[in-house]
Design brief:
By secondary structure, this protein is α+β, with helices and mostly antiparallel strands. Among the domains are: 1-88 and 598-639, Kinesin, CATH 3.40.850.10; 644-745, 2-Layer Sandwich (Alpha-Beta Plaits), CATH 3.30.70; 783-839, no CATH class; 846-1035, PH-domain like (Roll). The strands form 8 sheets. The protein has an 8-stranded mixed β-sheet, sandwiched between helices. It has a 7-stranded mixed β-sheet with strand order 1-2-16-3-12-6-7, with helices on both faces. This is Myosin IH.
């Protein structure tokens, strides 16, 4: 973008220097702005340098260069695209671009009004504008076809509606108003064309040096042999009366063959079918044939057609009955009361009928063509519903036939010039008059500028009942003999006093010479034109004999079928005259134009001879004058380039001032004042009116516009940000809601699950309780589960509570039902522990244990002190073998000593205590005193062993009487009484121990018994009592 701008600046500077040398590019900058000569000089200076465009403010003055200047290239188009109006040299593109940009930014409808006399370059300008839009507007693929059609509608319409005249080789013989439709993005999406009054008379007659419509020549020059043969045509215009009358039309200036190609291509693009083309060229050819129909007068004075070859061709091409056509051309139906009478026509009337038919057919075909093009320009997407509501805007292009003065001017010139008069009126209304009125209305100081208002001429032509058209219409329908001359007389009578009207009779002696008898003269805004009234009536009523109409209504040619509807025949009412029709269509055109924002292009013709670089001062001065350019310049100079309603100005630029952005609550005028103060308008730059702000120089507005353009970006960013935030928020809120919903559902699901679980738990608990209550009942469904559970639970629990060793007596209390199992288990467990324990202990210990077991069997619960002795382990022996006398050992011999212990022996008679050793072998117990064995008691002779139940260490070994060397029982006392007795029992392998209470008897010798009394007392004592008994008193420790 920056590069582009720089490029433009560079170019501008180049242009500026050129422009400085060559006058001024805007007449507003002209020093002598009131001088017509200065104006002309500037125009001439620029024209010499091929600078054909000059501004008056925003109005473009264009001088026809009559040569290709190379200023309509694509790069030129790009240059003007989107650039401020005054930044570049004047150009028709600048006007187009300005209108386009205004339309886009303000969504308003625009109009480019091109005016100027015939040959001044209006049509060219309108084509350039159309091309500019086509090339520079944004475009979508689907709309390219619309663009092409818009562009190509031009050559087709020109072929049928333009002709070479004395003024212009490509003179538009119809008025054309074209709407280019844009969508809200500025993309051209379609178009619409309105055609105005085609000059039909040209079909049958052309002035000297002029031609018929291009299409005839193009068809003959360019049409393929085959086509021409089909149409029955020869490749020579001179053979056709309608083309050959105009001698001296300089053919070399036209390139019909090339144009034919262009037109043919265009037909293909704008939706014309093969049939359409066949019908269309059939009509064109039939008109040529019609021109060649010759009439001859028979002796009754009636017209006949001697050669009917042409008739046959026409009948074939138009699809009508040859005989009917023949009759219609030479006869006329007259309705007499109830019946129709057919009467022959005179030669003159037949010629008239023929020409009328040619004109009518051509004229209506042209209308059909415009409609056809329109229907191809209608944007199909546009028509569908979605587009209907989008804002659409249009740029209108008006290219209408220009002001025309010939040597002989007829009805056509009258209409054309009237049309120009109306456009000039519009221009005056909208520029000079409206502008000045506005200043006054707005209370801006203003010195009125005089200008010529041509309303007076318009009124002369169109006023109801009093205007020329009304008078002409009246003459046409008036009963009685009416002629062009009677019309002229009526004119003289009714408008003779008008300052802008003159006839030969009314003119003074001076002017008289220049006006013929049949002529009247109008003083148009653009100059005086003398019209010949000849043919006015005929052309105005534009009559086509009913008979011919009927024939045409029955035509099988597709186009004519659409053009001539049977309904027309039924309608007995007179159709409005051509003049009135034209008047009405013009006023509706003006309505269209008034509703749009106008831009003006005023075209000037530099010379009458279509010559390049010829600058005819007189001619141009005249045009400057009648176009009102000087007045326009003066108003511009004194006035203000721009004005805007306060509301609109504020609405557009309010973003430039913090006070007015985003809303200004007060009156708009104050807002605008605040705004312009803020952006620094100088006092001379503007004026504040009642409802509008007036800005004197365009540059002020452009600067403002630039600033706005800049701020727009920021605004857009802000709007985007807000919008994006909004979108994001929407998304966020949606997500949040979704999350909440999800959560709700999830929570619900969880809660339901939980409820389920609780319900389940309740059931379980209930079953559990039921089971618990009935736990002791026999197994039934009610308690089954509970029992299983309890069982399982108990078993599982038991794992952690099994006793760790044999001595560990704890056991998990079983529930009632499991008592048995528990007992079994416990037993098993204990057994297992025992087994384990047993396995784990050493042989030695095992022996010891066995001994203890034996001790237990013997003493448990019987003798005092047993319990205390339990944890004192038994020794293998209490005497080392070394402490035993070797002699004793020898005596014992091979009997292995199992145990030995020091003991006190009490002898049987006196109970004297002696230190002895008790030695136990496998076979016997020995009481040993040093080296002597005092007593040997064989186990086999052992009768028993007695101990007391008290805590003394006494034992008595009873020996069976009669045993060898019987000495009596042995009374011993030792320290480890339980150990000794146990050892003994084990060796004897029989429980022979007798635990006595109170006293015991023993044998002193066989047959003689003694007694030992056991007692308790505070002190341990052993003594022989008076009775000779041994009394053993044990301490009663632990017992009390
Ligand atoms: N801008 C232009 N550049 C070159 N030649 C032009 C230009 N404008 C007009 N002409 C020439 O003048 C002739 C008449 O112009 P045209 O636009 O048909 O006039 P109008 O429509 O005003 O009667 C064109 O055929 C063309 O040869
Ligand atoms: Mg034209």
């Amino acid at each position: 973008e920056e590069v582009r701008r720089r490029h433009i600046r560079l170019h501008m500077e180049g242009a500026l220097t050129a422009r400085d040398k060559v006058g001024v590019q805007d007449f507003v900058l002209l020093d002598a702005h009131t001088s017509e000569s200065a104006f002309l000089d500037n125009l001439r200076k620029r024209f010499r340098e091929n600078l054909i465009y000059t501004y008056i403010g925003t109005l473009l003055v264009s001088v026809n260069p009559y040569q290709e200047l190379g200023i309509y290239t694509l790069s030129q188009m790009e240059l003007y695209q989107g650039v401020n109006f005054f930044e570049l040299p004047p150009h028709v593109y600048a006007i187009a671009d300005n209108a386009y940009r205004m339309m886009c930014s303000e969504l308003t409808n625009h109009l480019i009004l091109i005016s100027g006399e015939s040959g001044a370059g209006k049509t060219e300008a309108s084509k350039k504008i159309l091309q500019y839009f086509a090339m520079t507007c944004p475009m979508t693929d689907s709309l390219e076809i619309a663009r092409d059609r818009l562009l190509l509608s031009n050559p087709v319409l020109e072929a049928f509606g333009n002709a070479k005249t004395l003024r212009n080789d490509n003179s538009s013989r119809f008025g054309k108003y074209m709407d280019i439709q844009f969508d809200f993005k500025g993309i051209p999406i379609g178009g619409h064309i309105i055609g105005y009054l085609i000059e039909k008379s040209r079909v049958v007659y052309q002035n000297h040096g002029e031609r018929n419509f291009h299409i005839f020549y193009q068809l003959l020059e360019g049409g393929e042999e085959q086509l021409l043969a089909y149409l029955g045509l020869e490749r020579d215009p001179q053979l056709y009366r309608y083309l050959a009358q105009a001698h001296g039309a300089n053919e070399s200036s036209m390139n019909d063959r090339n144009d034919w190609k262009t037109v043919s291509n265009a037909f293909a693009v704008i939706d014309f079918t093969e049939d359409d083309l066949e019908n269309l060229f059939g009509i064109i050819a039939s008109i040529l044939h019609l021109g060649n129909v010759c009439f001859r007068e028979n002796h009754q004075g009636c017209a006949t057609i001697p050669v009917i070859n042409e008739i046959k061709w026409i009948a074939k091409l138009l699809g009508v009955q040859p005989s009917a056509l023949l009759e219609a051309l030479t006869h006329r139906k007259i309705e007499a009361q109830t019946e129709e009478v057919i009467c022959p026509l005179t030669l003159e009337n037949s010629v008239y009928a023929r020409d009328a038919m040619a004109k009518a057919v051509y004229g209506r075909t042209f209308t059909w063509l415009v409609n056809k093009i329109n229907s191809s320009l209608v944007n199909k997407i546009w028509e569908t519903s979605a587009w209907e509501f989008t804002k659409k805007t249009v740029i209108g292009l008006l290219d209408i036939y220009g002001f025309e003065v010939f040597d002989k001017n007829g009805f056509e010139q009258f209409c054309i010039n009237y049309c120009n008069e109306k456009l000039q009126q519009l221009l005056i209304e909208r520029t000079l008059k409206a502008e000045q009125a506005e200043y006054e209305m707005e209370g801006i100081e203003w010195e009125p500028i005089q200008y010529f208002n041509n309303k007076i001429i318009c009124d002369l032509v169109e006023e109801r009942h009093k205007g020329i058209i009304s008078i002409l219409d009246e003459e046409c329908i008036r009963p009685g003999p009416a002629s062009d001359l009677s019309f002229l007389e009526k004119l003289e009578e009714k408008v003779g006093k008008h300052a802008h009207f003159q006839t030969r009779k009314l003119a003074g002696p001076k002017g008289r010479k220049r006006i013929g008898w049949m002529e009247f003269r109008l003083f148009h805004y653009a100059g005086e034109v003398t019209y010949c009234t000849k043919g006015f009536l005929e052309k105005n009523s534009d009559l086509l004999y009913r008979h011919l109409k009927e024939v045409l209504c029955r035509s099988r040619n597709g186009i004519l079928k659409e053009c001539f509807l049977a309904a027309e025949l039924e309608n007995r009412r007179r159709s409005p005259t051509v003049g009135t029709q034209f008047k009405t269509s013009l006023s509706s055109l003006l309505e269209i134009l008034i509703s749009k924002e106008p831009s003006y292009i005023r075209c000037i013709k530099p010379n009458e001879r279509k010559e390049p670089s010829k600058f005819d001062d007189f001619l141009i001065r005249h045009q400057i004058k009648y176009l009102g350019l000087m007045e326009h310049l003066r108003v511009r100079r004194a006035g203000f380039a721009y004005r805007r309603k306060y509301e609109h100005f504020l609405q557009r630029y309010k973003s430039l001032c913090p006070d007015t952005w985003p809303h200004w609550r007060g009156p708009p005028a104050e807002g605008v004042e605040r705004l312009i103060k803020y952006i620094g308008y100088k006092p001379e730059e503007y004026k504040l009116g009642r409802t509008k702000i007036f800005i004197r120089f365009p540059r002020t507005l452009f600067a403002t516009e630039d600033a706005f353009e800049f701020s727009k970006h920021q605004l857009v960013a802000r709007i985007q940000a807000t919008y994006k935030a909004c979108l994001e928020r929407r998304v966020y809120v949606k997500k949040r809601q979704a999350a909440i919903k999800l959560e709700t559902h999830w929570r619900g699901a969880l809660a339901r699950k939980e409820a389920e679980r609780r319900k389940w738990a309740v059931l379980i608990v209930r079953r559990f309780i039921k089971g618990f209550i009935q736990r002791d009942k026999p197994l039934c469904p009610d308690n089954e589960e509970f029992v299983v559970f309890v069982r399982k639970n108990y078993i599982l629990n038991l794992r952690y509570h099994v006793p760790k060793n044999v001595l560990d007596k704890r056991w998990l209390r079983p529930p009632g039902i499991l008592q048995n199992a528990s007992d079994l288990l416990r037993k098993m467990c204990v057994r297992n522990l025992v087994r384990k324990y047993c396995r784990g202990i050493t042989a030695e210990r095992k022996a010891l244990m066995q001994q203890k077991a034996v001790a237990s069997a013997v003493f448990r619960g019987k003798k005092e002190g047993y319990a205390e002795s339990l944890n004192k382990p038994f020794a293998n022996s209490r005497i080392d073998e070394g402490d035993i006398n070797p002699k004793v050992l020898q005596l014992i011999g091979n009997e292995k000593i199992q145990y030995g212990i020091p003991v006190i022996k009490y002898d049987r008679k006196g109970f004297k205590a002696r230190q002895r050793q008790l030695i136990l072998t496998q076979k016997a117990a020995y009481v040993v005193e040093l080296a002597k064995i005092k007593q040997k008691i064989e186990y086999s002779a052992l009768k028993g062993v007695s101990t007391s139940n008290l805590s003394d260490g006494f034992l008595v070994i009873h020996v069976s009487p009669g045993a060898n060397k019987h000495k009596g029982d042995a009374i011993l006392q030792c320290e480890h009484i339980f150990e000794v007795v146990t050892k003994l029992v084990m060796l004897v392998k029989k429980n022979i121990v007798h635990v006595v209470q109170g006293s015991l008897q023993f044998y002193i010798s066989p047959g003689r018994e003694g007694t030992i009394v056991f007692d308790t007392g505070p002190e341990e004592q052993i003594y022989k009592d008076k009775n000779g008994q041994l009394t053993v008193v044990s301490g009663c420790l632990g017992r009390e």
